[in-house]
Amino acid sequence: MKVAIMGAGLSGLACAIILERNGIIPTIFESRKEVDDRFVNGEIFLDALNAPIEDAFAYLSNEFQIYLQPVGHIKKLIIYSENEQAITTGDLGFNVARGRREDSLCKQLLNQLNTEIVYNSKHTYEELLKEFTHIVVATGDGAYSEKMGNYKRDFTVSLKGAIVEGEFDRYTTKTWLDNTFAPSGYTYLIPLSNTEANIVIAYPDYQKSNRLDGNVLWENFFTRVQRDLKQTLKITDGFEIAEYIIGHCNKPRIGNTFFVGNCYGAIMPFLGFGQFPAIMTGIYAAYDLCGKGNYEKLVKNLNKSYENALVLRKAMEKLDNKKFDILVRNLNGFVGNTLLDYKKIDFLNVISNILKPIINTDVKNNKNLEDD
Ligand SMILES: Cc1cc2nc3c(=O)[nH]c(=O)nc-3n(C[C@H](O)[C@H](O)[C@H](O)COP(=O)(O)OP(=O)(O)OC[C@H]3O[C@@H](n4cnc5c(N)ncnc54)[C@H](O)[C@@H]3O)c2cc1C
Question: Domains in the chain, please, with CATH?
Answer without folding.
Answer: 3-371 (3.50.50.60)
